[in-house]
Amino acid sequence: MMYTVLIVLAVIVCAASLFMSISIMRKQQHHEQDQIHPTVARHPLLANPIVILYLAIPVLIVLGALAWWYFEIKGLT
Q1: Which of 15, 21, 62, 75 shows the greatest Cβ crowding within 10 Å of its Cβ?
Q2: How far apart are CA 4 and CA 32, in angstroms?
Q3: In angstroms, rounded to a whole number, what is the distance separating the alpha carbons of residues 35 and 62?
Q4: Is the pTM value of this prediction over 0.70?
Q5: How far apart are alpha carbons 21 and 18 in whole angstroms?
Q6: Residues 6+ apart with CB under 8 A from 77
Q7: DSSP line for 26-56
């Protein structure tokens, strides 16, 4: 039960952070910049390392938790 609550809280925090980052990025796109990399101009979400981390870290945490759970069941920890 406690793990479920913690996972739900982590998902809410990650979703709110992702939403706020995307909204800031959209506001920044309207400002003129002299030297912007063409990749960032074409793919502002996929080329942003912060957004990638917001998506990758929860996935890695869930995979680590599943591995831990598997090893607990097998009695290897």
Answers
A1: 21
A2: 44
A3: 38
A4: no
A5: 5
A6: 68, 71
A7: HHHHTS--SS--HHHHH-TTTT-HHHHHHHH
For residues 25 and 23, give the distance between their C-alpha atoms in angstroms, rounded to a whole number: 5
- Tens digit of pLDDT for each residue in 24-71? 777 666 666 567 667 666 766 766 777 777 778 778 888 888 888 888
Residue 68 CB contacts under 8 Å (≥ 6 apart), including other chains = 77
Structure tokens at 41: 């101009």
Q: Give how far Cα 20 sits from Cα of 23, 37, 76, Å.
A: 5, 23, 41
Residue-level pLDDT at 14: 79
**CA distances to 20, 25, 60 from 6, in Å:** 21, 28, 15
